Amino acid sequence: MVLRLGFRLSLPASHATEIFCQFRIQCVPVAFFSTGFVGDKPLLVRDFIRAALYDTKNGYFSKPSGPVGVLEKSIRFSQIQGREAYLQYLDTIYKQHDVAWFTPVELFKPWYAHAIAEAILRTANLSVPLRIYEIGGGSGTCAKCILDYMLLNAPERVYNNLDYISVEISPSLAKRQLETVGEVSSHLYRYRVENRDALDRSGWQADPNPCWVIMLEVLDNLPHDLVYSPDQISPWMETWIEKESDSFKVSEIYKPLQDTLIAQCIKIIGLDKDGSTQPTRFLSATRKIWSKVFPKPRKAWLPTGCLQLLEVLHWALPKMSLVSSDFSYLPDVRIMGDRAPLVSTKKDGITVDHISYLDAKGDSDIFFPTDFFLLERIDHHSSGWTSEPKNSGSSKPIKLRRSIILDTAAFIEQFGLPSKTRTKDGYNPLLDDFKNTKFYLSVPTHNVV
User: Fold this and answer.
1) In the list 154, 277, 351, 438, which could disulfide-bond 158, CB 3.0-4.6 Å?
2) What top-level branch of life does the organism fall under (predicted)?
């Protein structure tokens, strides 16, 4: 089974040398310019998405109430008959809390976070103090459950010397995290929240010591860029958003590639090696004719926010080990382009999916699928490894990371207690329902370049 919304479970022209003009399409009437998302100057798509999600006054994650639900107590799965009863229970708690979604770490607390804690304990070098960074800690449930697990299961010296830092961009969520973790007073001596943007390098201080970084449902909400090509052979162009003069409308405009982050991401993904981006002499006459007679516009979403974040993390924490979980696939996406997002608004218990990301007005979640093999390439690239040999004395490149991709079920079976989320008839929502989610684990090697 593949859930409709995975983690956010919710029930009922020419070639480059010839491109001098900007292409304009998709005029969308909107009424949110008072929020400041789009001003007099055009915005790159990633800046628009960042504002729509994280603007301090009007962003989706900046509302005092917040879209993330918190359960007062853990679900006792052993007392639930099966899948139908479980879905009825979820329907009830969604109506009671009137939130957009519950994260898996919340639905399956404490067991989901305990599995992550066990993975860290099995892998970490416990001869040095354990330091954990969590990016985007939500309601603080993951941090509290991991600290609980360390208190009860780790050697006493590990818990006593533990340092847990949450890097949270949302002021309201940062406050909630402290409240959640503070339910156990001893945890507060080992925990702190830094209310800042993890993508901003100026907020980090380089730490050469080993550490762990946790990112749960973070990649899906990171800013992305959009590139466009009017046909099968024309070069990719970057997408900007601007407000039309004397109008309450916004339009996409396309410009030749100039942004360094977009260009870097295109190179990592390999879009620059696509035959469609090569000079005309390498293109067959048949393909050129076909593209002119039957032009097929192309769009691709680029995880530039992920690239930016991993480059910052590898710079600040060169010996970090990383555990990340997120969507690997999103069904029913109505927006065009490879790796396109879902944009949804939930109001009065009803979820509405939008046909354009430009409909996001600060009340909409914008979340993307994660290509985990692409994530691995970005991770290795950001760590300083490339496919080329690093020194003349070696015929093979030196890898700086070891990584593995696991289905959520495989991760829980390896590190957790799957029996704790099993219902009476054997149905296990954590293993059975989250088929469109994966875990990514990455640790440094001992190679020296």
Assistant:
1) 154
2) Eukaryota
Q: Which residue has the tokens 């030196």?
A: 398
Rounded to whole angstroms, how far apart are CA atoms 302 and 370?
11
Strands ordered across the beta sheet of 211-216: 191-195, 163-168, 131-135, 211-216, 320-327, 437-444, 401-407
Q: Is 123 helix (H, G, I), strand (E, B) or coil?
A: helix
| Per-residue model confidence as pLDDT tens digits over 260-309 | 999 999 999 988 775 444 444 545 555 565 555 556 889 999 999 999 99
**Are 143 and 110 in contact, with CB atoms under 8 Å apart?**
no
Q: What is the pLDDT of residues 14-51, one digit of tens each?
A: 333 222 233 333 333 333 333 356 667 899 999 999 99
- The residue assigned the tokens 């009830």 is 92
Can you give the pLDDT at residue 43?
93
pLDDT of residue 276: 43
Contact present, 316 and 196 (Cβ < 8 Å): no
CA pair distance 252, 421, nearest whole angstrom: 46
Would you call 252 helix, strand, or coil by DSSP? Answer: strand
pLDDT band at 120 (very low <50, low <70, confident <90, very high): very high
Tokens 């993390």 found at:
313
DSSP for 9-22?
A: -------GGG--S-
Q: Pick from 325, 359, 323: which is nearest to 341 by CA?
A: 359
CA angle 377, 167, 324 (to 5 degrees): 35
Q: What is the pTM of this model?
A: 0.86
Judged on CB neighbours under 10 Å (0-12, 13-18, 19+), 248 is exposed
Q: Is the pLDDT of residue 158 over 50?
A: yes
CA 361 to each of CA 59, 61, 405: distance values in angstroms, whole numbers, following the listed order = 8, 12, 34
